[in-house]
Amino acid sequence: MSAQCPKCNGMGFVMKKQKNELKMECLYCYHRWLAMSKICPKCTRPNGFEVEGVCPQCYSEQYKS
To answer: Most buried by CB count within 10 Å: which residue of 11, 21, 47, 48?
Structure first.
């Protein structure tokens, strides 16, 4: 999942997930920053992304065949 870099507004990506913190890095200027993970509306745990939505575990349970 990507997010905008606070330094250059370039595209960033999640380097590491740690509890409800996300360590991000910019693809263009290599600036690193911390972001907060959003909360999963189903299980109320951090979803591991900087955008709203369900966590991977709840997603897989919802769309299991």
So the answer is: 47
